[in-house]
Amino acid sequence: MDAISEARLSLVWPLLAAKIHTLAEMLLQEGIEIRVVQGLRSWTAQDALYAQGRTAPGAVVTNCKGGDSYHNFGMAVDCVPSQFAPDQPYNPDWNPVHPTWKRMESVALSLGLTAGCNFRTFPDNPHFQLTGQFPAGAPDGEVKQLFKDGGMAAIWVEIQPV
């Protein structure tokens, strides 16, 4: 993976980072390069994204306020495949119906990741998360309380991988 992806993965739950590395390695063997375009996100940054298309310019990109996204707890990343072969400069392919996207989603699911493309009310195509026993939708009160009491590390210690 490139340095940008590595930097973003260094801030998320290590088990999630390991699965994203595996995803990237499996796809690279098929000639598909991916980049982690989003990882850990502060609650303030999440609120700014939520405002987009509502009280700030731009299109609506999320239905999650700060604290309501697994990005805020280091349990989610967004990945985008490149339009070009791995030996060429990375150039994001933002077309989620392209076969490389479908392959990325399929491999991610095989690794036990939740794919945002399957979200019922607001599909989030680049989104992949690993939440263990916690709800796949939005972080619940238990997640938020663990975070309040001990930060992300407290959540990560409590997660039972599934």
Explain what you see.
α2 (14-28) crosses α4. This protein has helices spanning 3-9, 14-28, 43-51, 99-110, 141-158, and strands at 34-38, 76-81, 114-115, 127-129. Strands 1-2-4-3 form a four-stranded antiparallel sheet. The chain is built from five helices and four strands. The protein is 38% helix and 10% strand. With 162 residues, it is an alpha+beta fold. 32% of the residues are buried. It has a single domain, classed as Muramoyl-pentapeptide Carboxypeptidase, domain 2, CATH 3.30.1380. The mean pLDDT is 95. The protein is globular and about 45 Å long.
The CATH architecture can be given as 2-Layer Sandwich
Structural class: alpha+beta
| Main CATH class | Alpha Beta
Sequence stretches where pLDDT stays below 50 over 5 or more residues: none
Q: Give me the CATH fold name.
A: Muramoyl-pentapeptide Carboxypeptidase, domain 2
User: Percent of residues in beta strands?
Assistant: 5-15%
Q: Termini separation (Å)?
A: 25 Å
Q: Number of helical runs?
A: 5
Query: Which percent bin holds the helix content?
Result: 25-40%
> How do the SSEs run, as a string of H and E?
HHEHEHEEH
Major beta sheet summary: 4 strands, antiparallel
The gross shape turns out to be globular
